Amino acid sequence: MIQDLLTFAVTFAVAIALYPPFIRLLKRRRAGQVIQAELPEAHQRKAGTPTAGGILFTALALVGGALAWRAGHAGAAAPLVGLAAGGLIGLADDLRKLRVGSLGIPARAKFPLQLLLAVPVAYLAHNGHQWPIGPDLGAWYWPVAVVAIAGTANAVNISDGIDGLCAGLSIIALLALLFGVPNAQPGEKATGLVLLGGVAAFLVYNRHPARVFMGDAGALAIGYAIAAMAIAQGYVLALLIAGFVFEIETLSVIIQVAYFKATKGRRVFKMTPIHLTFQLEGWSENRIALSFWSAAAVAGLLAAGATRWL
Questions:
Q1: How far, in Å, CA of 87 to CA of 62, rounded?
Q2: Is the pLDDT of residue 267 over 50?
Q3: Crossing angle of helices 77-100/107-127, nearest 10°?
Q4: What's the pLDDT at 114?
Q5: Burial of 231 per CB tally in 10 Å (0-12, 13-18, 19+)
Q6: Please, which pLDDT band fits residue 35 given cuts at 50, 70 and 90?
Q7: 50 by DSSP, 3-state: which?
Q8: Which residues of 23-39 are buried (b: 16+ CB within 10 A; e: fewer)?
Q9: Distance between CA atoms of residues 19 and 213, nearest Å
Q10: C-beta atoms surrounding 104 within 10 Å
Q11: pTM greater than 0.90
């Protein structure tokens, strides 16, 4: 436990020190957030805020994971490759948004790419542990694992919409997987703790009013890493429980789009993801973040309890 705390504390301190110059670098590079025209006025005022801040904590986690892997710690490979895969897709998407507006990589190309890069992550997660642990998925492991990895990455990304929300939810999910699940291997823990320290430091600068935004580079990397760790531990179902708030955010978008198309223009929610509906109802960003974090904390505790009998 002391080693875990030291890993977290050192990473947090390094990231806290590096974020101010990194934010200044993003400003010099004019890496400002482009706000979609349909978003509320509160979001329009954030235009130009430095984005892609997730690059730094992803880079730190990659270094930590690489050191753990080099030291021979079991379990480091899956989250390490997950961080790299998600980070690369997200970085490409962030760069495209900065060049051509807020469209990013088209979904018809982005999701197949996410599925493709989820395959090696699923392979490493499968072979990095004495599978199966928990329910034996048999041949279903591969489609379930690949979809779970890509789906988790997108769910985390969707929640990155208001100050502090995604970072806080990610911290809670990481805590649940690192300390609530009994099968975390040394490499998984080391990589996850460095990621946890980096995201916690990022939250200091991303809390309302945010000085920097996460961007896809950070959100997709977190999603891939979280899914890789859960799958390697054999708890795919626990991932669904721990990611409850991420899933609600995603389901709100799916329901809205499906209903809009089926009814030719009618809506279920004022705006999606669902956190935007709460914002239009007059909730402050801090209230939304705290409420969603509370729900995520309950889900994390339930996930930790569920691993005892799954």
A1: 10
A2: yes
A3: 170
A4: 96
A5: buried
A6: low
A7: strand
A8: beebeeeebbbbbeeeb
A9: 12
A10: 19
A11: yes
